[in-house]
Design brief:
Largest sheet: 9 strands, mixed
Number of strands: 11
CATH class: Alpha Beta
InterPro entries: START-like_dom_sf
Protein name: ATPase
Keywords: Signal
Organism: Alteromonas macleodii (strain English Channel 673)
């Protein structure tokens, strides 16, 4: 059977969507920042930490995306996969449909993955960007374990940065800078939820 490409965004910009994500509470371990935002593009950065080793967090990121990525951030709650190679796909499939959420453009295992494209409603706006996942080992709280260097427990920090460009518009009308900034704040919260889902999954698996 020929698979159909979905043409409607999974994250509609409705009042209920805005209310849901603007009111969402996130882990205190997450640090979010809107670097800039206007109606021609934006830059946002989120950080989250896990007690799992960097190799484990990275492995979960690639191999178990279908388990940690929030299903309400998908088109049809379908199966997700990330192809670990340049030119690969961050894709969703069902028995009758398929969608490319983003394309993988850079892979440095256990360190960095870059994806390009527009997520959610940004895709249909014709916006494009670079979504960069960076993985690093950091020292955490002190430990009495003599086997830990300098008494510090190593942790993994994941930094998620999204630089996007293109006209932000609603129903074909270019957004004001204020409305664009409001949208970007929602995107920032959504990506914080996605990032925290990865680190929480890594802590518990």
């Amino acid at each position: 059977m020929t698979k159909k490409l979905k043409t409607r965004s999974p994250l509609l910009l409705t009042s209920s969507f805005l209310a849901t994500f603007l009111g969402t509470a996130f882990s205190s371990m997450s640090i979010a920042n809107v670097n800039y935002a206007d109606n021609s593009g934006f830059s946002i950065t989120n950080e989250s930490e896990s007690y799992a080793p960097v190799e484990v967090v990275y492995s979960h990121f690639i191999q178990h995306v279908d388990m940690w990525w929030p299903k309400d951030h998908t088109w049809w709650k379908g199966a997700l996969r990330i192809d670990e190679q340049a030119g690969g796909c961050f894709c969703e499939t069902t028995d009758t449909a398929s969608a490319a959420h983003m394309q993988v453009s850079y892979v440095e295992p256990n360190k960095k993955v870059v994806m390009t494209g527009g997520l959610g409603p940004l895709q249909e706006m014709g916006m494009s960007g670079a979504l960069t996942w960076e993985f690093s080992t950091i020292a955490s709280s002190t430990s009495s374990d003599a086997n830990t260097q300098d008494g510090r427990i190593p942790k993994t920090k994941v930094t998620l940065t999204y630089h996007a460009s293109g006209n932000i518009h609603f129903n074909g009308q270019k957004a004001s800078n204020e409305d664009a900034a409001n949208l970007v704040r929602v995107v920032d919260k959504v990506q914080a939820q996605q990032l925290n889902a990865l680190t929480a999954f890594s802590d518990n698996n």
